[in-house]
Amino acid sequence: xxxxxxxxxxxxxxxxxxxxxxxxxxxxxxxxxxxxxxxxxxxxxxxxxxxxxxxxxxxxxxxxxxxxxxxxxxxxxxxxxxxxxxxxxxxxxxxxxxxxxxxxxxxxxx
Amino acid sequence: xxxxxxxxxxxxxxxxxxxxxxxxxxxxxxxxxxxxxxxxxxxxxxxxxxxxxxxxxxxxxxxxxxxxxxxxxxxxxxxxxxxxxxxxxxxxxxxxxxxxxxxxxxxxxxxxxxx
Lengths: 110, 115
Hints:
Chain A is mostly beta strands and 110 residues long. Helix content of chain A is 0%, strand content 54%.
Protein backbone atom coordinates (compact mmCIF):
# COMPACT_ATOMS: atom_id res chain seq x y z
CA UNK A 1 0.00 0.00 0.00
CA UNK A 2 1.44 3.35 -1.03
CA UNK A 3 1.97 5.78 1.81
CA UNK A 4 2.07 9.56 1.54
CA UNK A 5 3.11 11.32 4.72
CA UNK A 6 2.85 15.00 5.53
CA UNK A 7 4.43 16.83 8.44
CA UNK A 8 3.72 18.62 10.55
CA UNK A 9 0.04 17.84 10.91
CA UNK A 10 -0.63 21.36 12.19
CA UNK A 11 1.34 24.57 12.21
CA UNK A 12 0.83 28.01 13.76
CA UNK A 13 2.83 30.80 12.16
CA UNK A 14 2.96 34.50 12.96
CA UNK A 15 1.81 36.77 10.16
CA UNK A 16 4.82 37.91 8.17
CA UNK A 17 6.95 34.90 9.05
CA UNK A 18 8.01 32.32 6.50
CA UNK A 19 7.34 28.63 6.89
CA UNK A 20 7.67 25.29 5.17
CA UNK A 21 6.33 21.78 5.47
CA UNK A 22 7.00 18.39 4.00
CA UNK A 23 5.44 15.67 1.93
CA UNK A 24 7.16 12.30 1.66
CA UNK A 25 6.17 9.69 -0.88
CA UNK A 26 7.44 6.42 -2.39
CA UNK A 27 10.54 7.16 -4.45
CA UNK A 28 10.11 4.17 -6.76
CA UNK A 29 7.96 4.42 -9.90
CA UNK A 30 7.62 8.18 -9.48
CA UNK A 31 5.27 9.87 -11.91
CA UNK A 32 4.13 13.16 -10.40
CA UNK A 33 3.43 14.91 -7.10
CA UNK A 34 0.55 17.34 -6.61
CA UNK A 35 0.03 20.06 -4.04
CA UNK A 36 -3.45 21.38 -3.22
CA UNK A 37 -4.65 24.15 -0.93
CA UNK A 38 -7.93 23.55 0.88
CA UNK A 39 -9.53 26.51 2.61
CA UNK A 40 -12.39 25.87 5.01
CA UNK A 41 -15.77 25.61 3.27
CA UNK A 42 -14.15 25.90 -0.16
CA UNK A 43 -13.00 23.43 -2.80
CA UNK A 44 -9.44 22.09 -2.70
CA UNK A 45 -7.51 24.06 -5.28
CA UNK A 46 -4.56 22.73 -7.27
CA UNK A 47 -1.35 24.64 -6.52
CA UNK A 48 1.41 22.73 -8.27
CA UNK A 49 2.11 19.52 -10.10
CA UNK A 50 5.75 18.49 -9.99
CA UNK A 51 7.29 15.91 -12.23
CA UNK A 52 11.06 16.35 -12.49
CA UNK A 53 13.68 15.71 -9.83
CA UNK A 54 15.06 19.05 -8.68
CA UNK A 55 11.97 20.84 -9.97
CA UNK A 56 11.01 24.07 -8.27
CA UNK A 57 7.66 25.74 -8.85
CA UNK A 58 6.56 29.16 -7.68
CA UNK A 59 3.22 30.93 -7.41
CA UNK A 60 3.47 34.31 -5.74
CA UNK A 61 4.81 33.80 -2.22
CA UNK A 62 4.38 30.02 -2.38
CA UNK A 63 6.98 27.71 -3.84
CA UNK A 64 7.66 23.99 -3.87
CA UNK A 65 10.67 21.78 -4.46
CA UNK A 66 10.92 18.13 -5.38
CA UNK A 67 13.43 15.36 -4.65
CA UNK A 68 12.29 12.19 -6.35
CA UNK A 69 15.38 10.16 -5.39
CA UNK A 70 14.75 10.52 -1.68
CA UNK A 71 10.99 10.87 -2.01
CA UNK A 72 10.10 14.25 -0.57
CA UNK A 73 8.72 17.63 -1.54
CA UNK A 74 8.80 20.86 0.45
CA UNK A 75 6.21 23.61 0.26
CA UNK A 76 7.46 27.06 1.28
CA UNK A 77 5.40 30.13 2.11
CA UNK A 78 7.25 33.41 2.35
CA UNK A 79 5.88 36.27 4.45
CA UNK A 80 2.72 34.44 5.62
CA UNK A 81 -0.59 36.29 5.31
CA UNK A 82 -3.96 35.51 6.90
CA UNK A 83 -5.28 34.28 3.56
CA UNK A 84 -2.66 31.52 3.63
CA UNK A 85 -4.56 29.81 6.46
CA UNK A 86 -5.67 26.52 4.94
CA UNK A 87 -4.93 22.82 4.81
CA UNK A 88 -2.22 21.94 2.32
CA UNK A 89 -2.53 18.49 0.75
CA UNK A 90 -0.05 16.58 -1.31
CA UNK A 91 -1.17 13.80 -3.62
CA UNK A 92 0.73 11.00 -5.34
CA UNK A 93 -0.76 9.21 -8.36
CA UNK A 94 -0.54 5.48 -7.71
CA UNK A 95 -1.14 2.67 -10.15
CA UNK A 96 -4.90 2.98 -10.12
CA UNK A 97 -5.79 5.95 -7.94
CA UNK A 98 -4.43 9.09 -6.36
CA UNK A 99 -3.13 8.77 -2.80
CA UNK A 100 -3.50 11.85 -0.60
CA UNK A 101 -1.57 12.75 2.52
CA UNK A 102 -3.45 13.79 5.65
CA UNK A 103 -2.50 17.39 5.05
CA UNK A 104 -0.76 20.15 6.98
CA UNK A 105 -3.19 22.53 8.62
CA UNK A 106 -1.66 26.02 8.60
CA UNK A 107 -2.92 28.74 10.95
CA UNK A 108 -1.62 32.26 10.47
CA UNK A 109 -1.66 34.26 13.68
CA UNK A 110 -2.32 38.03 13.41
CA UNK B 1 -11.61 25.30 -15.80
CA UNK B 2 -14.59 23.42 -14.41
CA UNK B 3 -16.82 24.55 -11.58
CA UNK B 4 -18.20 21.83 -9.33
CA UNK B 5 -21.02 22.40 -6.88
CA UNK B 6 -22.31 20.10 -4.16
CA UNK B 7 -25.52 19.96 -2.18
CA UNK B 8 -25.99 20.01 0.74
CA UNK B 9 -22.94 21.82 2.06
CA UNK B 10 -23.50 20.33 5.50
CA UNK B 11 -26.01 18.22 7.35
CA UNK B 12 -26.60 16.68 10.73
CA UNK B 13 -28.34 13.31 10.54
CA UNK B 14 -29.62 10.69 12.89
CA UNK B 15 -28.14 7.21 13.09
CA UNK B 16 -29.84 4.75 10.75
CA UNK B 17 -31.01 7.32 8.21
CA UNK B 18 -29.63 7.95 4.72
CA UNK B 19 -28.39 11.09 3.00
CA UNK B 20 -27.97 11.72 -0.71
CA UNK B 21 -25.29 14.17 -1.79
CA UNK B 22 -25.53 15.79 -5.20
CA UNK B 23 -22.61 16.86 -7.36
CA UNK B 24 -22.99 19.06 -10.44
CA UNK B 25 -20.21 19.90 -12.92
CA UNK B 26 -20.59 22.83 -15.29
CA UNK B 27 -19.12 20.87 -18.20
CA UNK B 28 -19.29 17.30 -19.42
CA UNK B 29 -16.76 14.95 -17.85
CA UNK B 30 -16.23 11.26 -18.42
CA UNK B 31 -15.28 10.33 -14.88
CA UNK B 32 -16.33 11.70 -11.52
CA UNK B 33 -14.87 10.65 -8.21
CA UNK B 34 -16.23 10.54 -4.68
CA UNK B 35 -13.89 11.00 -1.71
CA UNK B 36 -14.29 10.95 2.03
CA UNK B 37 -12.15 12.62 4.67
CA UNK B 38 -12.79 11.36 8.15
CA UNK B 39 -11.49 13.52 11.02
CA UNK B 40 -7.70 13.41 11.15
CA UNK B 41 -7.47 11.16 8.11
CA UNK B 42 -6.47 11.45 4.46
CA UNK B 43 -8.81 12.11 1.60
CA UNK B 44 -9.80 8.57 0.63
CA UNK B 45 -11.32 7.54 -2.67
CA UNK B 46 -14.72 5.85 -2.24
CA UNK B 47 -15.56 5.15 -5.85
CA UNK B 48 -15.33 6.25 -9.45
CA UNK B 49 -18.65 7.16 -11.06
CA UNK B 50 -18.79 6.32 -14.75
CA UNK B 51 -21.63 7.46 -16.97
CA UNK B 52 -23.56 4.56 -18.41
CA UNK B 53 -22.06 1.89 -16.20
CA UNK B 54 -21.90 0.93 -12.55
CA UNK B 55 -19.57 2.77 -10.24
CA UNK B 56 -16.24 1.20 -9.40
CA UNK B 57 -15.72 0.92 -5.65
CA UNK B 58 -12.43 0.94 -3.77
CA UNK B 59 -11.52 -1.70 -1.26
CA UNK B 60 -13.50 -1.22 1.92
CA UNK B 61 -16.45 0.50 0.27
CA UNK B 62 -19.54 -1.31 -0.99
CA UNK B 63 -22.48 -0.38 -3.16
CA UNK B 64 -25.08 -1.20 -0.51
CA UNK B 65 -23.56 1.36 1.84
CA UNK B 66 -22.62 4.01 -0.75
CA UNK B 67 -24.90 3.70 -3.79
CA UNK B 68 -23.89 6.06 -6.59
CA UNK B 69 -25.84 7.33 -9.56
CA UNK B 70 -24.42 8.90 -12.71
CA UNK B 71 -27.35 9.69 -14.99
CA UNK B 72 -25.41 11.98 -17.34
CA UNK B 73 -22.00 13.51 -17.98
CA UNK B 74 -22.49 16.48 -15.62
CA UNK B 75 -24.18 15.02 -12.55
CA UNK B 76 -23.70 12.35 -9.91
CA UNK B 77 -25.12 11.46 -6.52
CA UNK B 78 -23.66 9.59 -3.58
CA UNK B 79 -25.93 8.15 -0.92
CA UNK B 80 -24.61 7.35 2.52
CA UNK B 81 -26.97 4.64 3.74
CA UNK B 82 -27.91 3.46 7.22
CA UNK B 83 -25.58 5.99 8.74
CA UNK B 84 -23.59 5.58 11.91
CA UNK B 85 -21.38 8.12 13.74
CA UNK B 86 -18.36 6.62 11.93
CA UNK B 87 -19.75 8.06 8.70
CA UNK B 88 -19.24 11.59 10.00
CA UNK B 89 -16.86 13.00 7.41
CA UNK B 90 -16.41 15.53 4.68
CA UNK B 91 -17.54 14.06 1.36
CA UNK B 92 -16.08 15.54 -1.81
CA UNK B 93 -16.73 14.94 -5.45
CA UNK B 94 -14.13 15.67 -8.09
CA UNK B 95 -13.52 15.46 -11.82
CA UNK B 96 -10.28 15.48 -13.82
CA UNK B 97 -9.27 18.84 -15.22
CA UNK B 98 -8.57 17.35 -18.61
CA UNK B 99 -5.30 19.24 -18.66
CA UNK B 100 -2.41 18.12 -16.50
CA UNK B 101 -2.84 14.40 -15.86
CA UNK B 102 -4.40 13.46 -12.53
CA UNK B 103 -5.06 17.06 -11.48
CA UNK B 104 -8.58 17.28 -10.11
CA UNK B 105 -11.23 19.90 -9.77
CA UNK B 106 -13.07 19.44 -6.50
CA UNK B 107 -16.45 20.41 -5.19
CA UNK B 108 -16.61 22.38 -1.93
CA UNK B 109 -17.54 19.29 0.05
CA UNK B 110 -20.44 18.13 2.20
CA UNK B 111 -19.75 18.13 5.92
CA UNK B 112 -21.79 15.32 7.45
CA UNK B 113 -22.30 14.78 11.17
CA UNK B 114 -24.13 11.64 12.30
CA UNK B 115 -25.51 11.63 15.82
